[in-house]
Structures are given as C-alpha cells and as structure tokens.
Design brief:
It is a single chain. 38% of the residues lie in helices and 13% in strands. By secondary structure, it is an alpha+beta fold. β5 and β6 form a beta hairpin. α8 packs antiparallel against α9.
Amino acid sequence: MSTRSYRDWVAKGRPFRLARPVAELVTWAKSAGVSVLGTIGNEEHLTKDIPEDHTPFSSTAWPVPLPGYVVCAIDLANVRLLGEKIEASARRGELPWLKYMNHSGRNISFKGGTPVTTSSRDHHVHLSVRSDWCDRSIGSFDPWGTTKGETMTIEKGDLRDIAEEVAQRLTTRDIWPNGYADRATNPTIALGTFVRNTAGDLAAVKAQLARLEARPPVQLDRAMLVDVLTEVIGKVDGR
C-alpha cells in the first residue's frame, strides 16, 4: 500500500533530483568503471510503508527534512573491495556526508558519531547521504587511493563480483534501472557460475545466454546482458 507522500508525489508529476553527493558519485563511478546499479528506486521501493533514501520523499531522511524531492541514495557494484575501502574511509572520518552504508551483508550507520554495525541483505554497495548535505559537494572521492589519470586493472574476480551482483538482483527483485527486476526474475539462474565458467570466451557466453533463454519460464533481456558482458569481458581480456 502506498503512502500519502507517494500519492502526493505522483500527483505532482513524479519530480525528483539527485542530491549533489549522489550526482557526484554517479560521475565518479562512470569515470572509475564502476557500475551504477540504481539511484531512485523502483515501484516496490517507492510504495513501501516506510519510504527510505531511494525515494525522493524519504521518511528516514536525517538529520533534517529533505529540501524538496531529493534522492539521497546510490547503489554501486562492489568491485575491487569497494565497500571495504569506503567503510574504512568513513571510519577514519573522511566521509562526513555519509549517513550509513551497506555492503557485503553488513549495515554500518554513522549517524551517532561511533559507527554501529548490523546485518544487511545487501552485498552491493549502498550509500545513503545525510539530508543536510543535499546541496554540498563531497569534494575528492578516491576510495582506492589512486592518483588522477591512473589506469586501474579490472581482474577476472571483478567480473565474478559483477555477475553475482546481477544474479542477486534478478533473484531478490532489488532495485534495477528501468524496472528491469519487474521483468526478469528466476531464482534458479546461476548467473555468477556461468559467467565464471565462460569469462574468457565471449562466444561461450553468448551460447550460454541462448541456452538460458530457452529454459522456460526464464525471461532475459539478451541484448542488455550480452552488451554488458561483452564490455566487461573486453576489459578483462584486453580486446
């Protein structure tokens, strides 16, 4: 059942903007080769009884009310130990804009000064921004400690992580851009396994996708998956 906040938002034409830190993180992720898995949530998130930071009318905004319809959360692929690196930076007090984060099955809240860790179902990196930082810059963001212009190497383990993230989202109906999770769900797809087994052979990946498509009731957006996997495999193999 949707909230009054959701219905009012829909009546106004579903306006929203990204908090400045979220927009800057999107830009950083694209330059760093990190997949952005979501900002504004799908309908499942938007219609929750308690709307949270993936909605532009979050009832959990902290420490002040939102300055309008602002999305204060971003999800990123957890590659190259990204979650651990960001957590370490936050624990050192280097990310004052961060309200809480999830990664690797953990939730770490920074609201009370002393970080508090609990469990989470998220294995990707979820970052929630403080609502008093919506219009402020996060400044430099360099979780891996690299210098500007330095080339990062994508290892085959990163491909595994990306594939497992895709598999998790397909099976849990978590946030997915353009509502993809609403169109393709099947808990029997071992996507991470098949990508690990075929990561070095693009033809084998395409063949496996075709076999998966032939197994009803599986519904896959083949073009999207082939494009994504082709790009990732190309980076891994240097094609």
